[in-house]
Amino acid sequence: MDYFLELFLSGLTRGSIYALIALGYTMVYGIIELINIAHGEIYMMGAFTALITASVLNAYGLGRLSVLILATLVAVTYSAAYGFTVEKIAYKPLRSAPRLSPLISAIGMSIFLQNYVLLTQTSDFLPFPSLIPELPLPSQLTGIISSTEVVIVLTTALIMVLLFLLINHTRIGKAMRATAQDRTMAMLVGVDVNRVISITFVIGSSLAALGGVMIASHIGQINFFMGFVAGIKAFTAAVLGGIGSIPGAVLGGLILGWTESFATGYVSSDYEDVFAFCLLVLILIFRPAGLLGKSAPRKA
Amino acid sequence: MIPLTLMEQAKKPLMTAAIKKAFLTALCFMLLTFPLLVIRVNTTENIIEWRWKSLLYMGMGSFFLSLLWRYLMERREAGGAVTGKQRPSHGPGMEKVLHDPRFTRPALLFVACFALVFPFLFSTYEVNIMISALTYVVLGLGLNIVVGLAGLLDLGYVAFYAVGAYGYALLNYHFGLGFWTVLPIGAVLGATFGILLGFPVLRLRGDYLAIVTLGFGEIVRLILENWNELSFGPSGIANIPRPGFFGMVMDLRSVTIYLYFIVIAMCLFTMLVVSRLRDSRIGRAWIALREDEVACQAMGIDKTKTKLRAFALGATWAGMGGVIFAARTTFINPASFTFMESAMILAIVVMGGMGSIWGVVLAAFILILLPEYLRAFSEYRMLLFGATMVVAMVFRPQGLISKVHRTYEFKGLEKQR
Questions:
Q1: Same domain, B26 and B157
Q2: How far, in Å, CA of A200 to CA of A96, rounded?
Q3: Cβ–Cβ gap A120/B37 under 8 Å
Q4: Element containing residue B227 per DSSP (H, E)
Q5: CA distance, residue A8 to nearest chain B CA (Å)
Q6: How far away is chain A from the Cα of B218, in angstroms, using its nearest Cα?
Q7: Which of A277, A291, A292, B60 is the most buried (most CB within 10 A)?
Q8: CB A134 within 8 A of CB A147
Q9: What is the domain count for chain B?
Q10: Nearest CA to CA, how far is B345 from chain A (Å)?
């Protein structure tokens, strides 16, 4: 039973991270119908920025908590700026282009950013300091879950609630929903669509950076290539839950995390990814629009 | 919208204003790139390295690039305003030139002559690169059937390529079959896997299809990587024989040239078949399916069969391409069949202009030869390559050679006017 619980909790942690990155995918997709392949790179750059900031701050001898908070803040701010810039350069000029062109542009951007980090930083794995301090956990939980995992799960839950409130109860959230439904119509009723798209990218990128910082301190190492796999997994999670749907992204992320965790624990760690993708194929065969997606009639 | 563009045209941006803007952009980029570009940490020894010089280069570089970018963007906008939205701006009479026999015949003749003498003029290394580029032409044309003609976004095309390559390697290893025997078998294997993938995804649309095909590609790669009994795992299979010519013994140079001509023949064959397919009943059905699924069904086209045909016929070329790949490199392992490979082939199709055969050929050459010849920039080549992809898409979103819709004109009406 303990083993099961351990796997359950590690799946929950993993799933939370996937969900955080998947949210960026799903929000961007919901608004401009673009698979933003470069999203994984933003996540990777977030982790790198956090590592650099933390190392510099450590050298100046700041306390652990302030390092954590400052590094996260810097990483989130920078990633948001990266997301904003990437959208302005690679996607905005392609608004009225054929559907696949932005996708190729995104692939190009992804290659570019990976190599940018490879050139300016390193191709090796860098050890990432465990930024998150030890929490006083109840004694039953020690050994089953680490405090990093607790922080990850709680932060993700908090973010979800905040995001839910933002989308459903604020003016900008309303504008986002309107843009997602029909961009031209939103423009007609006075929504500044370009601004909404930029804000979506900023929010999505910040969440990715947050995910990057947390998973880096959980796993303990980062590499310029880490964004690619995480990006594909997160995209899988987004599609699994129904792309464009925010609760769907969370659900998809959690299911993916649990599948991987249990498959690794009970079957074999070699086939971890195979299980994830098989699950995806199976779910999509029976629910072609994802778990929570609407199989709405196609837009003309 | 109209008053806005008029206003923009009215205020001619002054030189100083442009420079000021570029300066601001440069400042922004310096700020943006600051942490990753300037600071490098060595976490084991706790050394922090500050590289202020690179920030200076970055600032100057982004200043000029921003000026250039702004200028090109303005030209692009201006071009769009003149031709209007109805006609996406083609190159200057690109289409006309491409269809003028006075131009195309000598050009084709030149290309054919060049292709014939190429292997005798250049080193084995360059011939090898050319073989690789030509293999990608075949792959691009195959994927063009699925993506360009039938409009089914396939992100796992490399799986069929892997199936072909591993098919040859394993059949040769276990049964000693040669290249020429396996080439058709590879095609059949590819088609079979195409149908296998096609069946479950028939109901899926657009991006759901994309992610399932992506998943399929990854599954195939992961199985090859982990099923050691079948595929020898990550270490791969070595000593795959090159194609033979009636048992003749050839040295490396002549066998490379021989392979080169096989691939040329293969390319021509593919181009012929794909262009005939495009104009056939099946091809028309694919295009109809791409344009409007509902209307297509209403015209009495069997959606299931048409989609499966697209998957099968597209995968056939990947299967054969895989056999050629295995024969060229004589060594394969799962690392050659990653998602990046699929993305590359897709980029060839989209950059070439979806559905255009010559576009695919051109884009394959650019995308495969560019990284090779960018080796002069050694470590920067992939950076430049990614940037090229973005820039190419921003300035030619419809691809290098955009597809021409087949239109029927009633000539009599023109004369009456």
A1: no
A2: 19
A3: yes
A4: none
A5: 24
A6: 8
A7: A277
A8: yes
A9: 2
A10: 11
- Asked if B76 is an interface residue toward chain A (Cβ–Cβ < 8 A), one would say yes
Per-residue pLDDT tens for B323-359?
999 988 888 888 888 888 888 888 888 888 777 888 8
Q: What is the pLDDT of residue A143?
A: 66
**C-alpha dist (Å) from residue B379 to A198, A227, B374, B384:** 32, 20, 9, 10
A29 touches chain B (CB under 8 A): yes
Residues in B closer than 8 angstroms to A270, CB to CB, are: 226
Of B36, B216, B386, the CB nearest to A120: B36
Q: What is the mean pLDDT of chain B?
A: 79
Query: Mutual orientation of helices A193-219 and A39-59 as an angle, nearest 10°?
Result: 60
Query: Do B215 and B323 have their domain in common?
Result: yes
At A55-94, the pLDDT tens digits run 888 878 777 788 888 889 999 999 999 999 999 888 888 8
- State residue B237 phi and psi, 5-degree precision: -120, 130
**Identity of the residue in B48, B208, B397 whose CB atom sits nearest the CB atom of A97:** B397
- Please provide the DSSP assignment of B377-394 as one string: GGGGHHHHHHHHHHHHHH
Predicted complex ipTM exceeds 0.85: no
Q: Decide which of B60, B83, B106 is a domain's last residue.
A: B83
State residue B49 phi and psi, 5-degree precision.
Answer: -110, 130
My answer on whether B51 and B195 are in the same domain is no
Note the pLDDT tens digit of each residue in B215-255. Answer: 888 888 888 888 877 778 788 887 777 777 666 667 777 88
Q: Are residues B139 and B75 in the same domain?
A: no
Domain edge (last residue) among B32, B65, B83: B83
B343 — contact with chain A (CB < 8 Å)? yes
pLDDT at B102: 73
Residue B106 resides in a domain: no
Together in a domain, B29 and B142 = no
Structure tokens at A228: 């690619």
Q: Tokens at residue B169, please? A: 């390697």
> What angle is formed at CA A105 by the lines to CA B92 and CA B17, rounded to 5 degrees?
70
B189 and B279 together in one domain? yes
B226 touches chain A (CB under 8 A): yes
| pLDDT at residue B402 in the model | 67
Q: What are B158-202's pLDDT values in tens digits?
A: 999 999 999 888 888 888 788 888 888 999 999 999 998 888 777
**How does pLDDT run across B5-42, given as a tens digit for each residue?**
555 554 555 677 778 888 888 888 888 887 777 777 77
Identify which of B124, B329, B374, B299 has the alpha carbon closest to the alpha carbon of residue B236: B329
Residues of chain A with pLDDT under 70: 1, 138-144, 294-300
pLDDT at B204 > cutoff 60:
yes
The predicted pLDDT at position B83 comes to: 43
Q: Helix A2-32 and helix A39-59: axis angle, to 10°?
A: 120
User: Residue B401: inside a domain, yes or no?
Assistant: no
Question: Do B9 and B66 fall into the same domain?
Answer: yes
B39: domain range?
2-83
Query: Is the domain of B235 the same as that of B338?
Result: yes
What's the full length of chain A, in residues?
300
The Cα B310–Cα A106 span in angstroms is 26
Structure-token pair, residue B388: 């090229």
- The answer to whether position B403 is within a domain reads no
All domains in chain A, ordered by first residue: 2-286 (1.10.3470)
Give B85's pLDDT tier (boundaries 50, 70, 90).
very low
Residue B89 located in a structural domain: no
